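Handoff note, outgoing to incoming analyst
You'll be picking up this chain. Sequence as last confirmed:
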Amino acid sequence: MIANIIMIEDDMELAQILTDFLKKYNVSVENYDDPYLGISALSIKKYDLLILDLSLPGIDGLEICKEVRTKSNIPIIISSARSDLEDKIIGLELGADDYLPKPYEPKELYARIMSVLRRFKRGSTTMVGEKDTDLKLSSSGFILFHKKELSLTRAEFEVLSYMIKKNNCVIPRSELIGNTPSLNSESDSRSLDVLISRIRTKLGENSKEQKYIISIRGVGYRLQS
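Most recent structure output, in case you need it:
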């Protein structure tokens, strides 16, 4: 088997469809419609990834995500019919690795699983990014600056984490805004400038002394860490 997955999903019909589909790709799925049994199984057995619904009987999936992340670094994909952006943001903040809104094609879930597992495999032995950099995105979802956790607001984290993933690449302003959930395509670009300024302060630099975040006139920014 490529992967051994646990799924906590109370829609048994959907769970069976996904289980049968993923089996064709050598992905084994063990589903629990009772979230408490799922939590218990996670503490007993070793799985490669968790697929987690949010609307569950007796407990909210976000609470499960929070609890699991305090005990394990298992990759988590949230699979939910709840399309509220706030749920997505909270889920990612709590440590989920991906958020897939229902309905979706099983093939998309398979692609997300493979993507997350590849990222996790790279991050299990090293930090995301280059080995010898001052800024690193840890596999547990924190940004480290000189090996110490950097205190950031949600928006600051979204901006800086995306820049770390695109390290040494010039990132257009529109791309950076589009990949910052706390902003949107209609946001005043000055909001991005404010966030960049705050991040620079926390990195001990300013717009005149650009050691890490380099302004590219008329285009956007480039991180060199």
